[in-house]
Each structure stands twice: as C-alpha cells, then as structure tokens.
C-alpha cells in the first residue's frame, strides 16, 4: 500500500464524518484547524483527486469547501454542478456568499451560479425565503433576472403591487396580518414577531407552510403549547428521525413505542430499498457509551447514527443481532452513558460467527483500553485466518488530533460516516481500506461513481 | 494501608497526564446517603429511600443552607447525622458573587478556607500551655495558618479529564492520578451520590505537588491490554483471557498504584449506627506519600466514604514537626531530644517551617541569637 493511497482514504473518511463542529473529545477550534490542514494537504499533493472525491459521500460541509476551492482555482466541472444540486439551498447560498467575499468571480463560477439558479424550481420563492442570499448571488454573477424579481430584490417598494402571489404576499405582510401566513415559516416568523402575534396562534396558522424538518423541530415546542404540527415521522431522513427519538425523554419514548419503532423501521426499509434482506447473517456492535453524546452543538449525533444503523442493518440483514455496548436490549430507550467496553461486546458478537460484523463507534475503547484491538488481532490471527467474518468499523466522529476517524485496529477497515443512509456505500468503500487494492482501483471506483 | 474493601478498581481512563481509576461497588451501601440538602434542587432526580432507612452524611466543606435562617454555610469536617452538620461555618457572600452562583447548586467551600479547616481539624494546637508558646497559638491553635493548595481547575488537564470521563454503572468512587502520582481518592457509599459529586471534583483541592506534576508531565500512556494468543483457541478462551486481564489490573491497582495510601494515625470522630467516621494522618516519614483524609467505615469493615488530600514535600516536613511536637505534648525540650537536636535549633527549624508565630517573640529571638 503506498502512501498516497492511505492519505486519500484518510481524507475521504475525515471529509465524510467531520463537520468542523465541537465533538465530545475536542473543541470547535481544533476540529476546524485540523480539517483545514487536511484539505490544504490533499489539494496540495493530489489536486486531480481532490476534484474527484466530490463523487463520494462527503458531507455538505466538506463538499462546500471542496467546491469553493475548485471554483477559485481551475478544476471541477460537471461534478460541481451535480454536487450543488444535492446540497440544501441555504448552504449553497452561503457558499455563493463566501465566493463573493473571497472575490472569486471567474467565468466558470458565474456559469455554475447561473445554472444552479436556473434549475431552481421557483425563484420567486427563493427571492422571498433566501432574499439576501439570492440578492448577493445575482449581484455577484451580474445576472439579469426576468419579470418582477429585479424590482423585488433591489427596489421592493417601487411597485404598487406584484403579480406573483408570493411576492405580493411579502409586500402585503408589511401591513397586513393575514398575508404573512402565506409566506414561508422562517420569513413569516419575523413578521409575526414584529406584529406581536402570539406564538401559539402563529404556529397554529402557519402549520401548513412548515417544511418537513421545521415540522419535526417544532413538534416539541408546539406540542407544549397545545398545537399539533403533525409531522409525518416515517417520511423523515433516518438519522434525523433517530435524533428526534433520542431528544424525547425516556418515559415518552416508552409511551409512544409502537409509533416511533414503526417510523424508524419504515424509514430504514425505505433506505435499504432493493438491498433489503440481502446481507445474510449480520451482527452489530453499537456504541452507546457517554462519549456517544457528542457535544451540545451536535447533541446525541453519534448515538443517533448508531440507532439509525441498528434499524438499517435490521432491514438489510436476513438475520440480525445487535450488541449495544451498555448491554441494553431495548434500542428505543438507549441513552449515552457509561463506559465503552467495546472489547467484551466484540467477543459477544464474534461468538456467533456472523457473516458480517459492523461496528458503529467513535473508536474510544476504554474499559479496558485496547482490548478491542487485541480481540480483533487475536481473532484474525488465530480464530478466523481465512477472514470468513467480514468486519467493518464505521465511525461518526472525526478525531482532530490524529487527522482521521479513530480506528480500533489496523486489521479492520474504518470508514467515516455522517448519514446512516450511506452505510451500504461506505461498506463498499471499506474494501479499499483493507489494503488489498491500490490507488488505480480507488480511482477507477471514483470514476464509476 | 487503607483497604478499598467492597470496591473493585476498573480499567483506568486516561486524558493527558491524568489517569482516573473508577472504583465500582458490586453491592452499594444503601443505608448511608448524602444528606438530602446536599442534593438541593437536584433531589427530584434521585430516589432516596425513606428517611428512617438510612444515615445521612455531609462531606467536609460542603456548602448548603444549614443554618436556621437559610443563609449558606459550610460543613466543618465530614459529619454524620440527619440533623445536618452540627459544626458549620457561615459563608459570607459578596453581592456580585451571590448573583453568579446559582442557589442550591452542589458546591464546596472556597478552597483556602476548606484546607485551613482541614489542617486545624487534624492539628488542634498545643494542649499544654508551655511557656514558650505564644498566646495566639494557645488560644487559636493552628487555625490562622493556611496551606498552599490549588483547585482542580488549576490542575492542568483535570477539568477535561473529568468532563470526558465515562462513569461506570455502579461506580462509587475514583482514584485520581496525575503523572501516576496518587492525587486523591474519593469514595462515597452510593452511585447516585457519586454522580452528584463527580463534577465537584474539579472544585476540590489538590496539593502543590499535583499541580506541578500536571505542568511538567503533560501526558501519561495508557496501559493497553495484551492478550497471550498462544493460550487462545476459541472464543471462550478469548473471553476468559480478557476477564483475567481485568482481575489482574484490579489487583495491580490495589497493591501498586494505590499502595502508597497509608495512614499511621487514626482519630475516631463519631459513631452512628453501624458507621464510624475517622480522620487519618500519614506517618510523615521521608520518601513516603503523605495523604491525610477522612473515612467512614461500616461495622463489617467496608469502606463507605473516603476523601484524601495529598501533601507536598514542605507540607510533609511541617506535618512531621507538628506530629513530633504533639507526641511530646508540645514540650520543646523533650521534642528536641527526641529529634536529636538542641532546643534553639528546633526553634529555628519551626520558624523556617513557617511556625514562627506559634512561639513567643522573645523566646524566638533568643533561639535566633543562640543559632548565630
């Protein structure tokens, strides 16, 4: 295995898991610094690959960084537009604003910007919801918008009325209480505050306008106020749903057991799609130690990933058995607490000789330290020389000090994970981490994607 | 040596130069619990048994509204009993400070007061009014003297080590090592008490030695497990080998890591039900670890409560002088003979150790002159 190959895997793993936010073991500053270095290092040494990684499951945070750099220098191309199309609009507008601040204004940047805006389903909606972002993008790329939009963005009150309903609603919301309820929630909220509308009344009436995620987020506070925003749980992305479940008090989770478990399973089956039931006998070691709490800014994120993987693996496997680190058998009531006896749980899981063993953990093995690595070493040296049990470790946490996601053992491939949806693809990627392939294969794999 | 009877040492968790060894109780002691007032607002989250079913204790220097009028006061010495601490010192709050501290938050007394109290609890001062001792020493004992100590927050890396520490189920204590020197051992009877008090360890006091070690040795290594693969032929072997390693560590911790925790002088303070509160002092011998502290033990010999403070080398020397004096009823001549030096020499030694104010000024001047 040559060095370049290791570097690349390390970068891909990091760029999948890291978000530059505070983690359990390291602060925000060191996370950002460490990630900055890694980006700098890879684009300095492997510029051609730096563009190609966009095809992989990098998280939005890192994808935005890569794109920003590609547009500022020469590189990118089709991949950039494709990736932008998958990103959330606020993040794209933020990226455009960063490009503007950095003074990146070449022909390709303007083209990418124009194409992205052209592909937006409803630019008038964007003009209301992301007013500042769109304005800045239009200015930056010298775009000529059509119809009422230029007036709306740059001289909003120059017109007596707008023909486009949403623009007109925005104009009227400045003096008409009723009009604000046809605006998007984030915009209406500001108007409601200015009008002094009571929160309960506001939530009640704005409910039809909420997006899925807003609905999920407001479920709790609105529920307390007696309003039902009716989130369709099963339609949520898997990890979001898991995060939502973990945000509930244990008693409430138990009370709504059927509903929550049903939603999690339904979401998992949807993600598994055609692959459902094809993975054979699968065992999982899932980390619910105290460090799975993450940090206040990404509360319970590692635990949510583990919970989502639990349901996803149950859907993918023919026969499935989960081993939570704390020993709990009820995943719905799982809490981040206690030490991480990963080694003992690995022994429990290996005892059944599954076809595949998936470990979801931040890699901090402390009860006792290093037992997991030893178990895995002895296992592959003496008990399973042929490698019949396929092992993979997915890690949701980027270790800023080591510039990688923390591995349990060099013998087991470790990949970074952010959304449980990507688990099947990541397990595929993990084969490159075992050292049986080389850079050419990896590049070919990137090419295929 | 202080036995950790009824407690098992689990694998240590290392962060920088700090190693925290969790002490787990397979069977918790349910009839000795933190005084309900200690829990303050957080009382609702713990399920305390019926009041008649347990004896309450209050750790030394613990601040709560002990007095009648509800103003904050600190427990003076660890105490047993339902009524709350009989001996407590009022804590004056400055207006600015009062606003910042939340009411009923678990907290201990400001450090310097706590340590002074600790030392004067252990050393009561001259018991016989020999002519050489100053009036102040006779009246007030050693109490005005403060010892240097640092809060846990000043010990480099300790705050982070405590923050990222993963509390074991059933954990009732912790041994804190800084650069593998035992800084403090802390044991409570019940795991809920431990959970409540774990964050207060960072407000606790640590000796100068620990503070310096943390500065000069910023990292210690983990003790990674190594399995002997020649003995492993099946998963069952793997499991038994792993369990054996855990047992070995527990034994190693008790005999080697915490082996320096000796007490040579015990004072029985109080007895309540089947619990006995004691204070202990080290031997103050050269080249030994000097820990002083308090314990509560049950009648069947289990350790219910333990809190220690490690003295630095100068503090050990001072302690040595004080124990020698105490052993000879504070008689200077007798002590000097026992130490094999002259009275004047002992007087100068006392002054150098920072105890000049205990001797009458004219007597001290005489010793100084004789020394020259």
Can you describe this structure?
- The complex is a heterodimer of chains A (449) and B (372).
- By secondary structure, chain A is α/β, with parallel strands linked by helices.
- Helix content of chain A is 54%, strand content 8%.
- Chain A is built from 22 helices and nine strands.
- Chain A has a five-stranded parallel β-sheet, sandwiched between helices.
- Chain A is globular and about 80 Å long.
- The model of chain A has no long low-confidence stretch (mean pLDDT 88).
- Chain B is of the alpha+beta class.
- Chain B is built from twelve helices and 17 strands.
- Chain B has helices spanning 36-39, 95-100, 111-122, 135-140, 158-164, 191-197, 208-216, 235-257, 313-327, 332-339, 343-355, 361-371; strands at residues 8-9, 13-15, 18-24, 32-34, 55-58, 63-64, 73-75, 79-80, 88-90, 150-151, 171-178, 181-187, 205-206, 265-272, 275-281, 291-298, 303-310.
- In chain B, the strands form four sheets. In chain B, strands 1, 2, 3, 11, 12, 14, 15, 16 and 17 form a nine-stranded antiparallel β-sheet that branches. A three-stranded mixed β-sheet of chain B has the order 4-5-8.
- In chain B, a hairpin with a 4-residue loop joins strand 16 (291-298) and strand 17 (303-310).
- In chain B, helix 9 (313-327) crosses helix 11, helix 10 (332-339) crosses helix 11 (343-355) and helix 11 crosses helix 12 (361-371).
- The longest helix of chain B is centred in the middle third of the chain and has 23 residues, at 235-257.
- Residues 92-114 of chain B have low confidence and may be disordered.
